Amino acid sequence: MFQKFLGGKTAIVTGSNSGIGLGVAHRLAMAGADIVLNSFTDRDEDHALAESLAREHGVAVRYIGADMSKGDECRALIERAGRCDILVNNAGIQHVAPIPDFPAEKWDAIIAINLSSAFHTTAAALPLMRAAGWGRIVNIASAHGLTASAFKSAYVAAKHGIIGLSKVTALETAREPITCNAVCPGYVLTPLVEAQIPDTMKEYGMDRDEVIQKVMLERQPSKEFVTVEQLGDTTAFLCSDAAAQITGTTISVDGGWTAM
Known about the structure:
Layout: E1 10-13, H1 19-30, E2 34-37, H2 44-57, E3 61-63, H3 71-81, E4 86-89, H4 104-132, E5 135-140, H5 153-172, E6 178-185, H6 191-204, H7 208-216, H8 228-238, E7 250-253
């Protein structure tokens, strides 16, 4: 699959200095795309990561810091990149609490980073895609964009919103060579999730396998984590010519979670 079919394209991936975003960036780079990495920090290691990715895949890679909670910085990210053939809206945060106890500032931050940021980057990217005559927008949603869990009001609301935004974007670009889709992962094994396992083992008095099977993957029928490589492959497919007529839809990568 990973011929250089994205050679000459530039992909901006938000929230991409670790986890899902970094996995997606690797796969798009393997397919030949130049990459713009992003997070809210601006550290030497962020730029070193970009240099490492460039060496590994033989493409141009830049790191541009931008706070995805701020609309003007979201738009500035696209403007600073100068080109955006592929936009992957991945940045996200989480907080868990019952609605009466959910801190208002956490709600505002989750809606801003998980939903509003995608609106701002899309608004800035579409004119560049139209000028180039081609574009792909892939919004990383979640199984929680299609279903719900208690205590995750802001996250679920934001991910449902991302799916709605994807559909509207697809309708507004339907007569153009631009597509927009949402990818809906289930539980993904990222460094952040991996780091949670020891504490969860202590909390429940379980061994590692029990925590994974009975706690983390309780709602995932396959009882296997989604990998960042699988999400990267899915994103790359949506950027390929084979997916030119796939737009305004969701692709679930969730081990059967939303089939229940």
